[in-house]
Design brief:
With 139 residues, the chain is an alpha/beta fold. The chain is built from five helices and five strands; from the N terminus they run βαβαβαβαβα. The chain has a five-stranded parallel sheet, sandwiched between helices. Helix 3 links the parallel strand 3 and strand 4. The longest helix has 14 residues. The mean pLDDT is 93.
Length: 139
């Protein structure tokens, strides 16, 4: 079982922002994280950044993961990080996955995205990244 530093299961929100209708990858990640013992909330398609942040607040998640295949990863990620800061959620681990060109990884990191997983990323690496960052947060 994957637990946070407080001894509860790691809670992850996987969200599909904007008009992106490609959700197969997001669903595979959702199932992988659930199989790893995490509690996963999947937002479904076509969510606004405001809806995603509101869900993160309501569900008290440890991780906010965006799945973006549309090519709009830079503006969507920048807006998410801005809203996360505005809502005081800076303790949340923010991940972005999907069709992410290598040239954009540094920019996403500068925005404050902790983990970037391009199409074809090893699923176990996502699980381990989350576990290391969340379980080791207060060790």
């Amino acid at each position: 079982m994957s637990e946070s530093s407080e001894g509860k299961r790691i809670r992850v929100l996987i969200a599909k922002p904007g008009l992106d209708g490609h959700d197969r990858g997001a669903k595979v990640v959702v199932h992988t994280l659930k199989d790893a013992g995490m509690e996963v909330i999947y937002s479904g398609l076509h969510k606004t950044i405001e809806e995603i942040v509101k869900t993160a607040l309501q569900e008290d998640v440890d991780v906010i993961g965006l799945s973006i295949y549309s090519g709009a990863h830079l503006p969507l990620s920048k807006r998410l990080i801005e809203r996360v800061k505005e809502e005081g959620l800076t303790d949340k681990l923010v991940l972005v996955g999907g069709n992410i060109p290598h040239r954009d990884i540094k920019t996403l990191q500068e925005y404050g995205v902790a983990g970037i997983f391009s199409t074809g990323a090893d699923l176990n690496s996502i699980v381990e990244f989350i576990r290391k960052r969340i379980e080791g947060k207060n060790e």
